[in-house]
Amino acid sequence: MTRLSLLFAFSxxxxxxxxxxxxxxxxxxxxxxxxxGVVYYKTDSKLDVxxxxxxxxxxxxxxxxxxxxxxxxxxxxxxxxxxxxxxxxLFGNPKLGTPLMQKNQLAGLDLPLKVLFYEDRGSVFALYNxxxxxxxxxxxxxxxxxxxxxxxxxxxxGTAMDAHPVQSSDQDVGLHKGVVxxxxxxxxxxxxxxxxxxxxxxxNLSIMAELDHQxxxxxxxxxxxxxxxxxFGNPKLGTPLMQSSRGIALDLPQxxxxxxxxxxxxxxxxxxxxxLKARYQLEGNAEQFEQITKALETLSNGAADxx
Length: 307
Known about the structure:
Number of domains: 1
CATH class: Alpha Beta
Oligomer: single chain
Protein name: DUF302 domain-containing protein
InterPro entries: DUF302, TT1751-like_sf
Domain DUF302: 70-129, 211-273
Organism: Gelidibacter salicanalis
Structural class: alpha+beta
CATH superfamily: TT1751-like domain
Helix content: 25-40%
C-alpha cells in the first residue's frame, strides 16, 4: 500500500465485596448502561465528586499506578462537538495483572483496568469490564488474581460512588471474541516502532498512552514475554460514537496490543469494530465504523509488513 493511502486511512481512525453483584432488573432500572459484560453503579452525586473519590483512593494505594486520565467531553470540545460529562481513568497493579497475561497475553488488550464515568440527565454512572467477561474472553477464570481484581474494583468504585454494583444480564463472550490478530513479519521492537511511528506521523491522531506490560511485570519480579499496548484516537470520529452510546467510551480510545508468543512469533491485536458495534448495540454510525475498520486494517498491516 502506498504512503498516500496509508495516511488517508489513518486520518479516518477512531478517537479517539466477595458476593457476586445482583443481576439487572430492567423494569426498575432508570436508563442503565445497555452494555454486555460490565458492572455498573448509579448515583445522584456529582460526577466530579465520584471521580475524585476514586482517583484519591487509587493515588493512596502504593500498589496501583494511574496510567492515564481521558476527558472525552473536553476532547469533543476541541473539535467543536458536544458531549455530556464523560471521563475514563486507567490504572493497574502489575502484581495482579501480570498473572492474567502469563496465562493469556491477549488479556493485555483489556489491561490496564478502566473505569468509565458519565452523566445522564442528572444521574451519574460508573462502569467497568466485569471479571466474568474477562474470564470468558481470555480463558483466565482460574487465575487467582482475577478474583482479587473483582473484589478490589467493587470496593474502590462502590466506595467512590457510594452505591451498590449491578451486573448486566449478559456477561460471557466466546474465547477471543472480537479480537483481530495480525501476524507480523518483523521482530517485536520493529513492529512496535513502525506502529508508533505511523501514529506520530499523522496529525489527526493523538497517542493517549503507552504501557510496557513486560517492564511492569519485571518491576514486581515477575516474568512476561514482550507485550506492549498503545492507545490513540481522533475525537472527530470517536465523539459521534459516544453521542450514540456513551458506554462505548469504555473501549475508547482505540488500542493495539503488540506481543511476542512463546515461539517468537509477533502479533498485533485489536478490537474488531464490528464487535464493539454489537457490544454497545449501536444501530447507526455505519459509515464511521466502516472507516474505522479499514483504517485499523491498514495500520496493523503496515506495522506487520517487512517492507
